[in-house]
Amino acid sequence: MSTIKELFDDCKIIIEDDKSLTINGKQIDQIYNPDSGKWVTKYLPYTEYDNLLDLAQAVIRDTVEFTHLEP
Q1: C-alpha distances out from residue 71 to 11, 44, 66, 68, Å
Q2: How far apart are CA 39 and CA 18, in angstroms?
Q3: What does the pLDDT look like over 19-31, one tens digit per residue?
Q4: In a designed cystine with 54, which of 23, 49, 63, 69 is the match (CB 3.0 to 4.6 A)?
Q5: Inside any domain, residue 70
Q6: What values do phi and psi take at 16, rounded to 5?
Q7: What's the Cα-to-Cα distance from 18 to each of 1, 34, 41, 48, 56, rounded to whole Å?
Q8: How many distinct structural domains can be found in the chain?
Q9: What is the per-residue pLDDT across 58-70, written as a single tens digit (0 to 9) for each?
Q10: CA of 26: how far to CAs of 12, 16, 35, 56, 71, in Å?
Q11: In this structure, what is the dihedral angle of CA atoms 12, 17, 18, 22, given to the nearest 10 degrees?
């Protein structure tokens, strides 16, 4: 079993066994597309990522739920 833990833009990313992805404890649904060899998620439709870490960083950076807005 391999686990990747990383802090990105004040959000905690945990990837377990290249299957389970959580950001700040919230499970992020994602699917591996064997035809393209890439990962996709409903949070960012129409985009594909080479790995779950890239996908997680994009979700944090590009979705309202995880974006930290300046006051």
Answers
A1: 18, 25, 15, 9
A2: 10
A3: 899 999 999 999 9
A4: 49
A5: no
A6: -115, 125
A7: 9, 14, 14, 15, 12
A8: 1
A9: 999 988 887 765 5
A10: 10, 13, 28, 11, 24
A11: -30
| C-alpha neighbours within 13 Å on the C-beta side of residue 69 | 4
| Percentage of the residues of the chain whose pLDDT score is greater than 70 | 93
In a domain, 17, yes or no: yes
Enter the pTM of the model. 0.88
* Range of the structural domain that residue 57 is part of: 3-62
- DSSP secondary structure letters along 17-52: TTTEEEETTEE---EEETTTTEEE-TTSTT--BSSH
Which domain CATH number covers 22?
Answer: 3.30.1880.10
Token pair 């377990």: residue: 16
Quick one: which of 45, 1, 37, 44 has its CA closest to 23?
Answer: 44
